[in-house]
Amino acid sequence: MRAIFLGLLSLMSLLAGESPRTGTYTAAFTERHPESDYLRMRVRYNWPEQPSDGGVYDIAQEEFEIHVPSSYDGSEAYGLIVYTNAGKGGHAGLYRSVIDKHRLIWVAATNVPNERNVIPRWGLMLDAVWNMSKGYRIDQRRIYASGMSGGGRCASMVAPTYADVFSGAIYLVGCNPPVWPPEKAVGKPIRELAMANRYALMTGDGDFNKPETKALSTAMKAQGFKHVEYFEQQGLGHSHPSAEWFDKALQFVDQPLRDEAARLLAQAKALESKKPYDSCRILMRLPVEFPIATEVVTEAKLRLATLVPTVDAGLREEFAKLTTASADKQRAFTVRTAGFPCATEARALAEASGDKELAAMQAAPAGASASKLVKFQEIWAGFSCAGKAAEAYDVLAAKALEPLTAQDAGKRGKGLVKFLKDWQPCPSRLRAEGLLESDLATELATILAIEKTQSRIGKLQQFTKAWSGTRAASTAAAELGKLGGSPGSK
Questions:
Q1: Most buried one in 3, 94, 175, 285, CB count within 10 A?
Q2: How far is residue 356's CA from residue 382's CA, in Å, rounded to a whole number?
Q3: pLDDT at position 366, please?
């Protein structure tokens, strides 16, 4: 437990801006990925309204094993491998030299054996991405699901279905066909993303899952997956592939990124003489979006060093004419100059105009309305004046919330729901969410204390229906599942 506590402190220190922890260690997390909530997961998998027995888990009670290469210092985004075992343990040291070489971070829940319910096994993979992305600088284009045997099957059930979270996967001696969300509005975009991601299917000539793995590889290619490769290690049975073969899989899933980076570099070079600004824009993308393509990034930086001074000189000529221009033109110019030396002066000019615009809005007889402040924030997103508008918006929200805070906890629920519907995200809205969940938790505790089972089931059904979408309703649905009832029962 001491190791887990120290791991948690490590991640907290990262959020506080301290030096990132490297090496192999264990940690516990306190937050779950929004998509790992059962009510969200059921949409992807067409599950029943409440989780099955063993499907509810407390993230704070779960242990994760982590390995961060010693070369990581936060200056460059690293990829992430989320591993799921068939037994217990996170195997963070299994491919240590290989993941160090490829600038990858390894994270694995340690208590996800095949015997455990799939809901936490799959949910914890999402939670790992969420928390590691908060603690480390993660390359969002290199987030891979992986796992061995039953863990490989878990990865194959999560990576395509959550193609908006994972960039692909490496399945080790175990995999299942992809499952698509049944609702067209969710399933269609997910399927399109999944088809463009990268998948390495690994097995051995002595693995009893070899026929299934090979068949799935063929099927995925036939279905239109753009990047799928089958790897068969000679002399391997039903066990982890060697580091050498895992290295081959990593090279495969990363190669499309290197190819795309090379294509963009060629495009930038072709634009250098006639459209140097456009060339710079492409070159600036490469270190940010393709850190894995080290040779391309090195050349891009060298070319930028030559091009930027010339382009910046031209931009400064435009800037000289903007001192009396409209705020819209100044703002647009600031966006165009991002990354160039003149951007600092351009931003200062635009910020001053934004401040004047906001001040004029607030000085009007009726003051600045909530809707006008929201629109101002949208227009000036990324500028400090947008933050000032957000503060003004929260003042209005706080005033609207005051009457509700004065009401009794048992009577303000519907009013809080309406408030949450009417107001955009802001500190006061967070406060309203907290009040509502606190009130509902108290009400739910009273229901759970009812002695007669049938009466308790009836009250839980009413509660779940009345407060659908809240955390308390999810808890109530889980309790109904334990009692054999359901939100839809009469």
A1: 175
A2: 17
A3: 86
Condensed to tens digits (0 to 9), the pLDDT of residues 383-406 reads 999 999 999 999 999 999 999 999
CA distance 415 to 168: 44
pTM for the whole thing? 0.80
* C-alpha–C-alpha distance, residues 489 and 367, integer Å: 51
Residue 236 CB partners (closer than 8 Å, separation 6+): 173, 203, 204, 205, 206, 207, 242, 245
Residue 192 sits at φ, ψ, to 5 deg, of: -65, -40
φ, ψ (nearest 5 deg) of residue 232: -125, 110
Of the candidates 105, 68, 110, 66, the residue with the CA atom closest to the CA atom of residue 86: 110
Residues 220, 199: Cα–Cα separation, whole Å: 10
Total H helices, total E strands in the chain: 18, 8
Task: Quickly state the pLDDT bin for 487 (edges 50, 70, 90).
Answer: low
Tokens coding 156: 């194959």
Which amino acid appears at position 201 of this protein? L
How far, in Å, CA of 200 to CA of 216, rounded?
11
β-sheet bridge partners, residue 200: 170, 229
Distance CA 124, CA 130 (A): 10
CA distance 488 to 50: 10
Look at residue 260 and give its three-state secondary structure.
helix
**pLDDT score of 490:** 42
Find out whether 440 and 413 touch, Cβ atoms under 8 Å.
yes
DSSP code, position 61: G
Show the beta-strand stretches assigned E in 97-185.
104-109, 138-148, 168-172
Nearest in space to 184 (alpha carbons), one of 33, 43, 35:
43
Say yes or no to pLDDT of 10 above 70.
Answer: no
Average pLDDT value over all residues in the chain? 93
Q: Which domains does the chain have, with CATH numbers?
A: 2-240 (3.40.50.1820), 267-315 (no CATH)
Identify the residue whose tokens are 């753009």: 226
Q: Tell me what the mean pLDDT of segment 340-360 comes to.
A: 96
Asked if residue 293 lies in contact with residue 286, where contact means CB atoms within 8 angstroms, the answer is yes
CA distance 60 to 155: 22
Helix axes 327-336, 343-363, angle to 10 degrees: 150
For residue 168, give the 3-state DSSP assignment. strand
- For the stretch 299-305, contacts whose Cβ atoms lie closer than 8 Å and that sit 24 or more positions apart, written own/partner, are 299/265, 300/265, 300/268, 303/268, 303/269, 303/272, 303/279, 304/280
pLDDT score at 469: 83
Q: If you search the block for the tokens 């009812």, which residue do you land on?
A: 450
Q: Are 244 and 192 in contact (CB under 8 A)?
A: no
Cβ proximity of 121 and 58 under 8 Å: no
